[in-house]
Design brief:
about 675 residues; alpha/beta; eight-stranded mixed beta barrel; four-stranded antiparallel beta sheet; 19 strands
């Protein structure tokens, strides 16, 4: 019943139900009316028959009413009575004495008792006064027998039922064929409307015959075409702007402007738990290749380096690579320099395999710098440039001194088995609202041996070891306890790339949501745009399953891929969260303003809400709201709360949560 209330009863079901109900009512009324009419006719016929018999029989036996001839009169009455159409024939003399009486109590066996009980026929009696000459001789009373009338009525009822039933079936069959011809195109319109609600805009080629449906179908097709035209126009404009302003045309990587925006967005969020390290890669032999061979070979050298960097840094979550100028690349990664040294060694090994005689000054030089909070990018670039020039890094670590893969495997398995998990949150506030939230973003922190484990390092190694799904499962299992305490508040959990593309994880999530129904409402998953673009088709299929469970989806770091937004078409998502690199210089950067406004226009056309993060100043907040953003997040709104829930073990749970509908403590 609740599903009917939520989803509504289909028009097809309602029309079929109405037709069947009307047909059954018509069928029933016809049978009842037919029976009633026949019943009245038979009742009248029996009365007329009794009257005619009483008159004719009375005239026939009048000459034989003397005592000596009464047997002749009785014999004549018996001959008529034996026909079976009479229940009783009785002659009473003038002294009110019954002279003779014939009775037939027999009932018709071929008529069911329930029918006799349901349809009443009263046996009518008629009288005739008999005279012997001029003297009143007595009264003859004739009562018709209803048995034959019941038999006639029963047979007529059966014929009427069968004929009416055949007519009912034929009418329903014809109605079904007609309605199917009407509802097939209506089903196509419904599917098209359903796809529109899932952000999938398709055209219906089959135009219905019915005028009303033709109008609706053409209107939806026109709406879809107009929206598609607007979407294509906006995406082309945005893509052209992005390519011109933020993308290096040779490598497809972000350019210096893109690096500066990204650096500004991460520089103020650095902490001991969220370090950032910069790596510069320079190509000292590029000038020699350009001079001695050709500029085309120099471009190929640059492309080869870019390919290597994309492959290696692509395995590190949220790590980004940029090309600053002709021979210089730079990467920013949310890891400390010790951890990133493993990546530097991988890059060095990959470069050594590419070295040949043209690389007279070496294939490439690398340098690392740990970025401190508030450090100017000029200082970072100067330190990296010096490191590349003299060929040293600020951290000299050999492979043997790094945390080994087996050690990471043991650490992660230990965390999965008995590690503690704590949660903190940061609200995403609705635009133009003081107290209403879109949702609360949840940050999970793993604790091992009473120390927090760096999430960036943990998930980067877990991805290499194919253990990311298990970490996500642990987070979800543990967070269920918080969700059960606050079922009416909307929370958002981050979902890794591995879990998004894992069929096994999606199946586990579906089954787990059935055992923990609290997951089916007021919950979102935030997906990184880079992870989503790995395979949009499979991601879209899994997002549909997640949506069917009841969990909404948000794409975070939106815009960092520097690719077309065309992938949004067909994704059934609730929010996109614009990357902070477009927020930091929003007040002075007209390109960022245009980008955010275009994102709002595109996403609102699809029914997707747009969020902005890293909001630090009131002027930035006002501009984001004026540009059309639906929600904002940042320290200006409220910094992350450090304590929501602490789980000490699987059997001993302790909770620390600020009450009053998530008014968090710092």
């Amino acid at each position: 019943m609740s599903s009917f209330i939520k989803n509504g009863l289909s028009l097809k079901t309602q029309v079929y139900g109405l037709i069947i109900a009307i047909s059954l009512i018509s069928f029933s009324v016809r049978i009842i009316t037919d029976i009633g009419t026949t019943q009245k006719y038979l009742q009248t016929q029996m009365a007329s028959h009794a009257k005619d018999t009483a008159t004719s029989l009375g005239l026939s036996i009048s000459p034989y009413l003397e005592e000596d001839n009464i047997m002749i009169a009785q014999t004549m009455a018996t001959a008529i009575f034996d026909s079976g159409y009479y229940k009783q024939i009785k002659f009473t003399n003038a002294q009110a004495k019954v002279v003779f009486e014939l009775i037939n109590p027999k009932r018709v066996e071929s008529v069911p008792n329930w029918f006799i009980s349901a349809v009443k026929l009263n046996a009518p009696s008629r009288q005739s006064e008999l005279n012997n000459g001029w003297i009143m001789a007595g009264t003859l009373e004739v009562t018709s027998h209803e048995g034959h009338s019941y038999l006639t009525l029963w047979e007529h009822t059966k014929r009427s039922f069968y004929s009416s039933f055949l007519l009912l079936v034929a009418s329903l069959a014809v109605a079904f064929l007609i309605l199917r011809a009407v509802f097939n195109p209506l089903k196509a319109v419904e599917n098209q409307a359903h796809l529109v609600t899932r952000k999938r805009f398709t055209l219906t080629d089959e135009i219905p015959v019915a005028r009303e449906l033709r109008t609706v179908t053409k209107a939806i097709n026109n709406m879809v075409m107009n929206l598609q035209t607007t979407f294509d126009s906006l995406t082309r404009q945005t893509q052209a702007l992005t390519e011109e302003v933020y993308i290096d045309p040779l490598t497809g990587l972000g350019n210096r402007k893109s690096f500066e925006n990204h650096f500004n967005s991460v520089a103020n969020s650095i902490s001991d738990e969220a370090p950032v390290t910069a790596m510069m890669i320079s190509l000292p032999s590029l000038t020699n290749i350009n001079k001695t061979v050709s500029y085309q070979d120099g471009d190929e050298h640059i492309k080869e380096v870019a390919k290597i960097l994309k492959t290696i840094f692509g395995e590190l979550t949220n790590a980004k690579v940029f090309r600053l100028n002709g021979s210089t690349f730079i990467a920013l990664a949310p890891y400390d320099s010790d951890f990133l040294n493993r990546t530097r060694l991988e890059i060095t090994d990959a470069f050594s395999q590419q070295k040949n005689s043209l690389h007279v000054n070496g294939f490439a030089n690398c340098a690392l710098v740990s970025v401190e909070k508030g450090m100017p990018k000029g200082h970072v670039l100067s330190a990296l440039d010096t490191g590349c020039t003299i060929g040293v890094t600020n951290t000299k670590v050999d492979k043997d001194t790094l945390f080994s893969v087996n050690q990471w495997r043991s650490l992660i398995q230990s965390i999965l088995a008995s590690g503690e998990v704590s949660f903190s949150v940061q609200p995403v506030k609705r635009a133009h609202s003081q107290n209403k939230q879109c949702y609360f973003e949840v940050f999970a922190h793993f604790i091992h041996e009473n120390e927090k484990v760096n999430n960036g390092h943990l998930f980067a190694m877990a991805e290499k070891l194919n253990l990311t799904e298990e970490l996500d499962k642990k987070i979800i299992r543990n967070f269920v306890n918080v969700k059960e305490l606050y079922p009416n508040d909307v929370f958002a959990l981050n979902l890794s790339k591995a879990s998004l593309y894992s069929t096994e994880f999606i199946e586990w999530l579906t089954l787990y949501a059935h055992t923990k129904p609290v997951l089916k409402t007021n919950l979102l998953f935030e997906l990184n745009e880079i992870s989503l673009l790995y395979n949009v088709h499979i991601a879209s299929q899994h997002i549909d399953i997640i949506k069917d469970i009841g969990i909404n989806v948000c794409i975070e770091h939106f815009g960092t891929s520097l690719t077309s937004f065309r992938y949004l078409q067909g994704l059934d998502i609730e929010y996109v969260k614009i990357d902070g690199s477009y927020i930091q210089d929003l007040l002075d950067n007209s390109q960022s303003q245009f980008f955010i406004q275009t994102v709002n226009n595109i996403c609102h056309g699809f029914g997707i809400k747009v969020l902005a993060c890293l909001v630090e100043g009131p002027e930035t907040l006002d501009m984001l709201e004026n540009l059309g953003c639906d929600g904002v997040q940042g320290n200006l709104i409220m910094p992350p709360s450090n304590v929501i829930k602490t789980i000490q073990s699987s059997t001993n749970k302790q909770f620390a949560f600020c009450a009053d509908t998530l008014k968090f403590c710092n």
